[in-house]
Amino acid sequence: MNDDAAALYDQLQHRAAALAAAGPRCRFAPSPSGPLHLGNARSSLLAWLHARLLGATLVMRMEDLDRPRVKPGSAEQVLHDLRRLGLDWDEGPDIGGPLGDYTQSRRDPLYQVALDRLDARGLVFPCYCSRKDIENATRAPHGHTLTYPGTCKELDAAGRKRAQARRPERRPGYRLKVSDQVVAIEDAVLGSLQQHLRDEVGAFVVRRADGLFAYQLAVTVDDALMGITDILRGEDLFVSTPRQVYLWSLLDYPAPRFAHVPLMCEPSGKKMSKRDGSESIAAFFENGGSAPQLVGVLAASVGLVPAGSVLSADELLQELTLARFFSALRQAGQMSHLA
């Protein structure tokens, strides 16, 4: 373990705990994999409203963990587009803060410290399985997650050597062992979720076979070391939240409060995505739209204001209370699940 990285990790954890004790802390976490589409814009607007209604410190974190998907110039465009929408933040890669660096690709030494400490407790093991291996072993996917069958969990040194010899070109990934317990969360929008990690997920990846740290580990370490107390994000991440809660418990950090909001859809009903070329914030402005028009469209899409409203982000904030905000989001979530 790198002693300097370990010392920094401990300093950040201590500082983060003190800041979290002083008041709520929320975060944006966009990925610079291309222009933000309108669904990203809506989630960002909702995260900003949530933070400001709480009176929280709002952290901007650039989640460029998956390097192959990062598009040059996207990080700068993300910041520009969100500011143009009328949003701001209190800490981030462009303005600094007490718990940076706020860009994931520069935080690998911190993730390694967490991984090393988990490994020292016997909680991590190398895994030589491909996704196809797991599919063949389990035969049935559980939703969007394959339950890891434990193929490599109990391998001794000789077994690991044989597994590596079968695929000398493939580096192992690393998985976190999970205990025989149910992890329960209470979400401010979607309600209760209980997940038996061993039966429904199995040991999950914390470092990928390509050497990159896995999202589950990185986002948990980041939120812990940035003192995040409240998280609002898209409901596509709801089902993976118990894994992060489990990791928070292992890292001795209290889990934040959660709110998972419905994803914005195309007129066809399909979820918006960068990959499919959904309309971006930049394109909306290039086509003659204004920030107040876009805020109105996004807010109306989750029932915060009537359709056709035109108002700035600050004006929208003044119209809301936290109770009204969450009431509208719960109703929007119910409607999206009925659609």
What do you see in this structure?
By secondary structure, the chain is of the alpha/beta class. The chain folds into two domains: 3-113 and 216-279, HUPs (Rossmann fold, 3-Layer(aba) Sandwich); 118-215, Glutamyl-tRNA Synthetase, Domain 3 (Glutamyl-tRNA Synthetase, domain 3). The protein is built from 13 helices and nine strands. The strands form four sheets. A three-stranded antiparallel sheet has the order 3-4-7. Strand 1 (25-28), helix 2 and strand 2 (57-60) form a beta-alpha-beta unit. The termini are far apart. The model has no long low-confidence stretch (mean pLDDT 92).
Secondary structure category: alpha/beta
Number of helical stretches of at least 4 residues: 13
- What's the overall average pLDDT, rounded? 92
CATH class assignment of the largest domain:
Alpha Beta
One letter per element, helices H and strands E, the order comes to HEHEHHEHHEEEHEHEHEHHHH
How are the elements arranged and paired?
Elements: H1 3-22, E1 25-28, H2 38-54, E2 57-60, H3 74-85, H4 108-120, E3 124-127, H5 131-138, H6 157-166, E4 173-176, E5 182-187, E6 191-196, H7 197-200, E7 204-207, H8 215-225, E8 230-234, H9 241-250, E9 257-261, H10 281-286, H11 291-300, H12 313-319, H13 322-338
Parallel strand pairs: 1-2, 8-9
Antiparallel strand pairs: 3-4, 4-7, 5-6
Helix pairs in contact: 1-4, 8-9
Quick synopsis:
With 339 residues, this protein is of the alpha/beta class.
Properties at a glance:
339 residues; alpha/beta; Rossmann fold; Glutamyl-tRNA Synthetase, domain 3; two-stranded parallel sheet; 43% helix; globular
